[in-house]
Amino acid sequence: MSVLVGKDTRLVVTGLTGREGTFHALNNRNYGTDVVAGVTPGKRGQDVEGIPVFDTVHAAVAETGANTAMIFVPPRFAADSILEALDAGIELVVAITEGIPAHDELRVYTQLKRTPGARLVGPNCPGILSPGKANVGIIPASFFKEGNVGVVSRSGTLTYQIGNELAQRGFGNSSIVGIGGDPVPGSSFIDIIELFEQDPQTELIVMSGEIGGSAEEEAAEYIAANVTKPVVGYIAGFTAPPGKTMGHAGAIVSGTAGTAKAKAEALEAKGVRVGRTPTETAEIAMEILSA
Amino acid sequence: MSVLVGKDTRLVVTGLTGREGTFHALNNRNYGTDVVAGVTPGKRGQDVEGIPVFDTVHAAVAETGANTAMIFVPPRFAADSILEALDAGIELVVAITEGIPAHDELRVYTQLKRTPGARLVGPNCPGILSPGKANVGIIPASFFKEGNVGVVSRSGTLTYQIGNELAQRGFGNSSIVGIGGDPVPGSSFIDIIELFEQDPQTELIVMSGEIGGSAEEEAAEYIAANVTKPVVGYIAGFTAPPGKTMGHAGAIVSGTAGTAKAKAEALEAKGVRVGRTPTETAEIAMEILSA
Amino acid sequence: MDLLEYQGKQLFARHGIPVPSGKPASTVADAVAAADEIGYPCVVKAQVLIGGRGKAGGVKLAKDRAEAEQYATDILGMDIKGFTVHEVWIEAASDIASEYYASIVFDRAAKAPLVMFSTKGGMDIEAVAEETPEALVRIHVDPLLGFQDFHGRRLAFEAGVDADVVRPVGALLSKLYDAFVAEEAMLVEVNPLIVTGDRDVKALDAKVTLDGNSLYRHPDNAGLRNPSQEDEQEQMAHERGLTYVKLDGDIGILGNGAGLVMSTLDVVAQAGGSPANFLDAGGGSKADAIVSAVEVILSDTKVRAVLFNIFGGITRCDEVAKGLIEAFDVVKPTVPFVVRLDGTNDVAGRQLLADASLPNVHTEATMLGAAQKVVELAAAHGAAA
Amino acid sequence: MDLLEYQGKQLFARHGIPVPSGKPASTVADAVAAADEIGYPCVVKAQVLIGGRGKAGGVKLAKDRAEAEQYATDILGMDIKGFTVHEVWIEAASDIASEYYASIVFDRAAKAPLVMFSTKGGMDIEAVAEETPEALVRIHVDPLLGFQDFHGRRLAFEAGVDADVVRPVGALLSKLYDAFVAEEAMLVEVNPLIVTGDRDVKALDAKVTLDGNSLYRHPDNAGLRNPSQEDEQEQMAHERGLTYVKLDGDIGILGNGAGLVMSTLDVVAQAGGSPANFLDAGGGSKADAIVSAVEVILSDTKVRAVLFNIFGGITRCDEVAKGLIEAFDVVKPTVPFVVRLDGTNDVAGRQLLADASLPNVHTEATMLGAAQKVVELAAAHGAAA
What we know:
The complex is a heterotetramer, with 2 copies of chain A (291 residues) and 2 copies of chain C (385 residues).
Chain A lengths: L9 E5 L4 H13 L2 E6 L7 E2 L2 E4 L2 H8 L3 E4 L3 H13 L4 E4 L6 H11 L6 E3 L5 E4 L3 E4 L8 E8 L2 H13 L4 E6 L10 H10 L5 E7 L4 H12 L4 E6 L23 H10 L3 E3 L2 H13 L1
Chain C lengths: L1 E2 L1 H10 L7 E4 L2 H11 L3 E6 L11 E4 L2 H11 L3 E2 L2 E2 L2 E6 L3 E12 L4 E7 L6 H7 L4 E5 L8 H11 L6 H17 L2 E12 L4 E3 L3 E4 L8 H4 L9 H8 L3 E4 L4 E5 L2 H13 L6 E4 L6 H13 L5 E8 L4 H15 L5 E7 L2 H11 L4 E3 L3 H18 L1
Parallel strand pairs in C: 15-17, 17-18, 18-19
Antiparallel strand pairs in C: 1-13, 2-7, 3-4, 3-7, 5-6, 8-9, 8-11, 9-10, 11-12, 11-13, 14-16
């Protein structure tokens, strides 16, 4: 088992015919993901190395039975593309696009919550990798192998760093989920931790957070109340100065709220061990799994 | 038992200090309804014969525990007043106001469907009477007595006519629900029939429809699939010419869809007996209940 | 409230929807002046609230001034299916490459705006919907989310528009939706929506129905009412704030509440009578409203008897009785009246009527009895007249 | 992106929010001309992106021309908490009866706009929130439903505004919400929102933060950027499209991905070092972006060593290596570099670096090892310098 993406994933890629869309869609297919369709308005009838292209997500769903959409269009078209996928009945939308306007994200999120059975991961995220099964997004899959550690992270490259440290210690992953660093992520830590808790393959959960917002604090509460599996935390941004946006639109500290220290303490107060570096985080995970 | 309103109703009246609002709120209280508050912006601290007035529905709910709101404000303020009541956590909103713009009703309805646990009856309806328990609205209660017939109707006075014909034959009512004749009613026949089906006091359901829309046809399908109690139908408007709005904004026939004949046939096809006049409708009900 | 084509186009233009330039005119001289200003060829179009103008000769292409004058003369005053042409719209002729169809209706059943689009424009859309339903693409729009770019793409692609106009068609549909919401329309229809030889997309016709309940928010639109298009009695009723619909029969009907009035019409018809009108005196009717109502009913000279069917809720029966007594004093009707009063203050109302002993007014205890009585009286009065 | 007060007021005015009339000026002569035009008394206000102007002497009431000239002279060029005053705003003096507070923030946690209102305006709102939290009314607005009239009434009544201004306050809040949504703001704040002696309601201050990601939709706003307010390195980075934040230390940091860069800063700090900056080269960085990034990092003269920490996903390590080699050619750095390359094409990247044998470039296999190495080198280089 794995979470969100796996052998049942039937992927449609919006923006397939763009340079990045083509590159990563083919990468995903080469990994074993069932990439069934692409969408580029006006390019119906074309194909990208055998992947058929449609004008609309609705047509792609009707013709190919796609159940998962990867959004690869530029920021100014991304909100519309996500809404289109939701409207077309897609169950899981994975939005890679970075730089979507915040108010667009707000509208998309509010609409998502009115769409029964739909889930959004991202935007501004590296996607989801279920090693050995499917890769939807831009996570470099060759660094990861199948195993029992579920990873959920706001950051892309930091996810690779932590996953890699685990891999170097011999551990594999059930799924690696990048929820993205934007102000309004479609899925929260809690949403993904809930899935890992239910997933039989996952035996330990690594949660990698960062400064800004209160998602980590909320996750701490949730973990204490609902999660039976061990959770190891990591928080980036101990040295970040207040009031500055640190790259991720979500990574901004106002006053004492949202600091790395406050987040780590909130997690530790609920019994979640928190590593101070990616290396230490991997070591704690190893210690728990080897016990 | 009864449906929607009864001994647990705690009523707040928006527009209480207006002439009509005062008159009917006091009427309702005299009948036994627990009228706990009124709302008129700027009149906090006043009272109407002992009913305290608040500036906002939120304040009324906080101070009095109101769970039902009756909307008596003029059409241009009505949509806002309904939305305010929904936002304040009111469970049942009964909107008497006639002449609310259709697009306002559309926004209100869409918001209603996003508000868990909330119900709207009306607008442009006479309200709900549960004889012997509570009256919320403008139904002349003295013509009705407690009993086992549930009545649901798009029309106000026609409801009185049918209820009166039943009363003259010795039958009382569990509840009488006017859902209103507007293009976008908050509750449909189906919503109310579902409640009557669950209500132990109700042994027979009278459904009084009229030309326009497809609510009666939808109810016919629902009744066949879900209702065990006998249902008697009545449809007004057999002589209405197509394309004309007959008073109720919803009562307009386009082509052959929405005619009284089509509606009566749809009900009869599903085993619902339909009276051709209010008198005949009451006679059918009497026949069934006496059998 | 229905708008004339040119009123609809002016409304469209306010929302950025491309329409051909034009001018309205109600005299031949104004029409020719407008045509001169717009240039030739131009189109002279009858402005009436009914379809089928073209077949009736109400739309003509004028090559020059002489033709414009001729056509304006022919069309102004023309009768089209019972509607007199009071105005023409003089419009620059368009170079039509394709004709599409677009509309947005307030869909009561779905409780959402329904956007429809087809590449089979310029013809009877109901026939298209019946014969080739797949050619009419239908999409509901969530009222809170609103019209999104993807809705426009879906409509255009699924209908099969030419690839080069997918964007402008989507943009026009988006603006049409804006207009539908901002103006609180119940219907906006464009048939045909054209693509010109230069690949411009334009609304060549406009059919707009506005929500009368929202006109207070749109004072400009409220001023567009075309009273000349209403029936004389309906216009009179409208001015007095009454809900009145003219019918073909000879029995005047007044009741309170739309459902009860509709039911009364049915019961009268079942009793063998033929209603002359629908008149809902509404909730809480006061005496003066009753006087107005009687005036409207009796202004229809076909009426041979009148039925009052009142079940008082907000409406108080004593007020209705007072109104009727006053109406007899003012209007002095010559036809018989049948009155049935039940509900709030019914005893007092009946007593007032009994005390007034109006000539030729019959009271009945039940709706059914009242209907039978009025049918009988109408027949007798008809025979006598 | 933060706006100056007067830019915020001009934005407010576009949405119908009442603001006092005024003019911006960047010279004393222009300021005096503006004051003459506006009339006396008027207020001379320093335009800087930092609070506490008043206490710093940046806001003065001028009774006449002489005072206006004196204050403009004093304030232009003044340093307020490290910000130089380049512009003043000359504004008509207001007759203040009451001072309220209003703001709308993009609340990430609630995923909805949060509207806040208080009658305790004109002071530090954070102190109000802390000392008398009940005085600050907070309401979230559903993004799809939008701001309704009842929201305005609740805010005004619950905060306890004077009864006669409940409506105008509600109307102003509604327009403020319109502005927040239409301009895609992350924050709009009015402190104080005043009631004048004539009972007019006006925004006397304006603090607006816009969403940089949406500026392409708002070309007018995009032109408002105040580059003079940015740090020199940050301005340089911004022009090159890099995400750069200046810090106080001496170790330059470059990584790919915000989370990894933040983590790198932490690990360097833990190793005893002090980062000079945050620089996210972003996904898919090409060689020329790396050259730009090195230029920006080294333009900070405090930098004594640089750490490259790359875990390639979209970013290809060979591209990073090429960029670094090119940067050495162009910039010829004198400080030591530590490079850690992992991920996509890491073997090729490391090989390129090895082949280039750049002076003073050290490669490390792990993030932790690289952090320790750069701290050591920075200390040594500092001692040598």
